[in-house]
Amino acid sequence: MRVDAAALRTGPALLSPGAAHFLADLGNASVAVPVALTAVVFAVRAGLRARSSRWWLPPVAAAATCAAVPLLVVPLKALFARPAPPGPLAGTSGFFPSGHAATAVAAYAGAAVLLTGFLARRWVRRVVALTAVVLNAGVAVGLVVCGYHWPLDVVASWCLCGALLPALRACTRAAGSRASAPEGGTSDAGRGGAADPGRGGDVDGGPATDAGRAD
């Protein structure tokens, strides 16, 4: 509680009220879930394009990660019934853990884990991962500065939903998404088809080769 109180005292000095509310709103399901759905659609298309036999596994795992948020957070809120911090919601309870912070982890960090399984360039993967970290940090700061949550509410959500990310990562690896994804939009079949005509049109070693000998 002392850590929470100290953070609440110093928080308003970090951001203006408008900026704090903007960051806090990034944890709304109406904002975060569409980001996750966009990543899911991208993963489905990339998996089908790569002709992976388990193309469905990473998208399903990402969707399950987002769906798990209310199943985990709502019972814990009822169990702990932690009162709100001083501020606009003072006098109410049910703030531990933070639903907004949990949604942000599942949506933004989950999308980053999902996308990095299909991105071949290392620097792009790093940018995606860094963006997810910045978004989650921003949501956390916004929630605390606005007085919507105690800092430990946010940390609890990070730990709770962060524990789901290794399973999502394992699913992306099990699907072999990055290894089987075509680089530069060229598949193995396309590279094979381009090489065959260069060998005199002899695809199966049959009549084209015999005709060449007869001439």
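The record above closes out task 2.4. Task 2.5 opens with a second protein, given below.
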Amino acid sequence: MISAEFVRNEDRPGSTPDQLRAGSQQRCCWQCAHCQHEWVSTVANRTNGRGCPVCVNKRRAAARRVVAPGLPSYAARSSGAPLNAGRSWTGSSTQPAATDSTRCTNSPSAPDFARANSLASTGKTSTSA
């Protein structure tokens, strides 16, 4: 119950929880029933479901620490063990080298690159040479 966490009204000192409306923009001080933290928030924020910022941050941090199934845990990642330990590799490390017919013709390592460069600098084309 929100009224149980009410400490004081910052905007109108001396007013009580029963004098406040659910959508009020008055700033009040609240004390968490779980961790005893005090913070200032509007009544509207509290009635819309916002609670203790300390408890919310603890829940968010705990949710971030949950590891999805199939992924290595943080402890495994920080222990120096390889991330793919125990997983099979589907690719092949012995793939054939690219042949001249599969190389990119715009690549500087293409066989005719030097010839094309020299032809371009003279203004000739490969058909006129």
